[in-house]
Fold this sequence. Notes:
It is a single chain. By secondary structure, the protein is of the alpha/beta class. The strands form eight sheets. An eight-stranded mixed β-sheet has the order 1-3-6-5-4-7-8-2. Helix 5 (238-252) runs parallel beside helix 6 (274-287) and helix 8 packs parallel to helix 10.
Amino acid sequence: MLGGTAATAALALTTPARAAVATPRVERWGMHEIVLKGPASGNPFDDIRLSAIFVCGTVQIDVSGFYDGDGTYRIRFSPPSLGRWDWTTGSNVAALDARTGRFDSIPPRPDNHGPVRVTRDGYHFAYADGTPYRPVGTTAYSWALQSDARCAQTLATLKAAPFNKMRMCVFPNVTSVATNPFVRTGGGPRDWNSTRFDPDYFRRFEDRIRRLGELGIEADVILFHPYDKLRGYSAMSRADDERYVRYVAARFGAYRNVWWAMANEYDIVEGKTVDDWDHLFEVLVAADPHDRLRSIHQLNVYYDHRKPWITHASVQHGAAVLDDGRVHPHRNFAQKAVIFDEVIYEGNSDKRWARLTGEQLVERFWWGTLGGAYVGHGEVFSDDGNPDISWLGQGGSLRGTSPPRLAFLRHILDSAPSPGIDPIQQFWDYHLGGRDFTWYLKYFGNSRPTKWDVALPTRAADPHPDYRIDVIDTWDMTITPVAGVFRMVQRDEYDVHDPARPTIALPGKPYIAVRIMRV
């Protein structure tokens, strides 16, 4: 949970001397917030520089602050380790400069596993404490910018849903209720001041981040998008873009459930080149001492995910997850974890990108899983044919048939060994994912086999453990153990099998999988 941590850690200081109070205590990976009063005149967003250096032993971390309106300044810090942290502010304004304080970072609560990181092998995810994290995300671009009632409905839906990641835009689109991240200067759509943020807008957005954190959901925060050309928030100058990126990094970065998505469909954001995106990533890395996960999402032209500031590849591709053989090359080219955040949506739209059946969407999840990647959900059910008025655009409630099956998939993912499922012998059409000699998953998609020849890729010098097998109906959500143990011996140069039980019976239905587990 994220809710109470920042509030209990917040500290207001108005004099240089330390207050004679007990040292605050903040759980590891929670949030310590310094609140200061300072100038409200001029343009504090541009005129005032504020930061704090946090020191614990030999570790020193420099964290930027931000202006929150009405003469209030905040510095937010999430301690990455246990111990006493001393801090000192630096500013070009005397009222904010040379303030000092300290807090103790204490062990986290059981539900606080820290921020999500990429695992050491580079292809999977885990929380900072080592707990595996297997993303099963969804997208509701403008949910955080709807009415309070609609946001509450979305959160209630998420509480009962299987999703542990939410993709969400900072800037509004045509369906947003909250539409002014910057101070208005007139009545026209572009009458706003790019040098002055509206703190209320960002306060409201960060409340949604915090509420997702309370549900154990990662907030994949999309910084730019091409969907609101009328107001032009994604068409600012480079200096304005830099100011905005630094502001959101200072404001949101200490929430441990934040991920950064630099842009959605970056390649159709008008007026920005790859060099511009590269530059903004450099700005973001420098502005984010918490080093949150970073990605960028494309429509047509893949970004080079091998660049050092990219932590994982975010990919839009509906056809790549129709077979595991199309999935694993994405890992090979990115050399990083891959999330197919957009694979076409379940829905009733006349748009070709929003009319999958639940079966078709769930099938894409399973093929993506077998290929060693992760897949994201989206839903577009609309009563008036407008895809923007749907879960994808606004959140609210879910109407599709895929979410219960994705909850079932999460159960299967959670049973896999760490760090996660890798493609097995991907160049030889075994259609297997898992961990060699330990745990395997095979998926048959929409074919209807009545038997499977039980053979696993193994050479003579490799381990030859015994296995148990489950038959999994991924649509009806059943797991049926196959009786007995399979005692594997070498069948030929490449494979092992059990000569006493060379095949198993399958139900002749679509969307069947088989799980093979070492005894």
